[in-house]
Amino acid sequence: MALNVVMMGPPGAGKGTQADRFARSRGIPKISTGDILREAVAAGSEIGRRARAIMERGELVGDALIIEIVRERLARPDTANGFVLDGFPRTVAQARALDGLMEGRPPLVIVDIAVGDDELVSRLTARRVCSACGANAEGRTDAACRRCGGALTQRPDDREDVVRERLRVYARDTRPLVEFYRDRPTFRSVDGALAPDAVAADLASAIDAAGRESPAAPADRAQERTR
Ligand code: AMP
User: For residues 211 and 209, what is the distance between their CA atoms, to the nearest angstrom?
Assistant: First the structure.
């Protein structure tokens, strides 16, 4: 059955890395709205021009624009076996729109990676990303990217003042989403303060357990038994 996952968690919780890892392990696409917007900024497209200043201040781009981006992305055929959303939804309005887009598909599995604020600030301000391939690099080193040898840089929105603003925006706009989803049988939370391998293992078992809760699963399993 298609696994439609929403990876939630504050900036710096490791969502991007974990979403990437989980998506690769299951052969489904990771869809990161932050990556899509950064590509648009780098390409200088109309969307990029609209989003750039907002992103550099650590604020959220408008719901209508981001919902349209996700609607188009989810319509592509590579999402038929599932997907992992990273950085979307970030507001209750986006979550309601996503529910609308899920009609006719297996229900969402929502997993929240929980990490405390102080840990998040120190992780984000130390984060470096590769200017060539976008890979994440932990720590304050200016060594080359391990994946492609490109130069490491700091994302403009990983400066401490912007990080604090992003955490404020997260608490105000996105944390209420945890409440929006919490009562669903397919919602799970994992401890993101653990080492990355332990978080990955917890996530995989939480997502699989939640996937078994989805109402479509019993019919799917019955189908598998008759094959
Ligand atoms: P991220 O890489 O997910 O931290 O996203 C980087 C920035 O892109 C955010 O700080 C926002 O300015 C913007 N962004 C990404 N996803 C969304 C979203 N779902 N809604 C609004 N703004 C977003």
Answer: 5
